Amino acid sequence: MMLELDDVHAGYRRLEILHGLSLHVDQGEIVSLIGANGAGKTTTLRAIAGLVPTSRGHIRLDGQDVQNRAPHRIVRSGLVHVAQDRALFGHLQVVENLEMGAYTQSRSTVRSSLEEVYELFPILQERRLQRADTMSGGQQQMLAIGRALMARPTCLTLDEPSVGLAPNLVAQVLEAISRIRDTGVTVLIVEQNASQALAISDRAYVIESGSIVLEGKASDLADDPRVREAYLGV
Ligand code: ATP
């Protein structure tokens, strides 16, 4: 297992949001976490990234306990989180944003990482000198993912990467995530576009009120009447 959550309790001050959540992601898998608004999807990803404290349970990355480690140490352990708000440096150029993502890396790896990111998202190379805040929503999302890749993660978590994007860009971003997995990166993804996320996923979990209530192969969940009715709008 690359990433494992075992009976995780986590939340905000005294407000517990995750009530004993368990899930795992195997090396090289794409796993989706789906659920209604407020179910705790973002909190789960934030707990993994060290941004929300856990009060009980274990979070293991490649076998090592990482719960309650500082966020920058989790990045060094190989897990990078792409937050929903993207958190780009708007006044900096595209290439400067990418370089910021590589702060844990040596100079020589920065160059090869940049080449890999430009191969994945050619638009970022074309726009490399443009200010990040003048890019379109889709381009900014590609930049946020590209910046995460600059840290050379073994595991990537993504919080609603397609939010606010036009349908053709949603497909492009999800297709890029699929190609990132093909390079060996393990992916955990939260998506509003659940059916499109399931289409690129190996497995999925359904979260309700801070616990996992259903899990299975992504294709099985996509056909499950309960999932179709509650989360796929079918
Ligand atoms: P959404 O799709 O709306 O983002 P979600 O499944 O990602 O939903 P979370 O954002 O994890 O859900 O929120 C779970 C619960 O935690 C909600 O009841 C929310 O109000 C609460 N919550 C989120 N952030 C905080 C915070 N900083 N302080 C207190 N409560 C919070």
Automatic annotation (TrEMBL):
Biological process (GO) annotations held by this record are: L-amino acid transport
Coiled coil ranges = none
PROSITE patterns in UniProt: ABC_TRANSPORTER_1, ABC_TRANSPORTER_2
Give an example GO molecular function.
Answer: ATP hydrolysis activity
UniProt keyword list: Amino-acid transport, ATP-binding, Nucleotide-binding, Transport
The family classification in the record reads: Belongs to the ABC transporter superfamily.
The protein in question is named: Branched-chain amino acid transport system ATP-binding protein
